[in-house]
Amino acid sequence: MTSIRANAYKVVCIGRNYADHIAELSSARPKQPFFFLKPPSSILPPASGPVLRPKGVNLHYEVELVLIIGKTVRDLDANDEKGAMDAIDGYAVGIDMTARNTQDEAKKKGLPWSIAKGFDTFLPMSNPIPKAAIPDPQNVELWLSVNDEVRQKDSTELMLFPIPRILAEISQCMTLEKGDVVLTGTPKGVGSVVAGDVMKAGLRVDGKEVEEARIEVKVEEKGGPYEYKET
User: Could you tell me which of 19, 61, 68 has the C-alpha nearest to residue 213?
Assistant: First the structure.
């Protein structure tokens, strides 16, 4: 738990795991969990901002509960709740930054989403949260604000696919290893941020703020040659 980015072999992200978020993006509701990858290089450690918005990108935030895997997991049974919880070393809060216009184009053309999800700084993370601080990860409140205006606030109990099912589906496809990071999906309220905006995010258990879960990060324009153009 000392360095999430240094220890992560991969970052696996669950898509469309909250019904209201599916509706707000006019997406199809999945029959089973589906997932995509973000590179570990996209992780932005705590207090090391800013988030960089590439030129031409409609940059969206998506707050999520993050699982930090503590052991090798392979072919987990979806009904093995104890096995799933035993596989988790701890938690964090993450903001899955997304180049929404890039993703929308990829969806329409049947192309991969990697470029929409994988830019450097596209995964701001909180400090690691000790496992004992979250007795029930299916009953915590996630929140995110932009310039102190709350944009997302919902409970993880609204997940369509609970954590054991998520870890089962992933581990039956690819082995999860100690240090891997799993993002469990975002609730409703996603939207755009621009340079100068300040995002804050966190997590509450029984109405009480978990200090290690706090994120505060500013958005700035990204320099360099990249500029979004239609593929």
Answer: 68
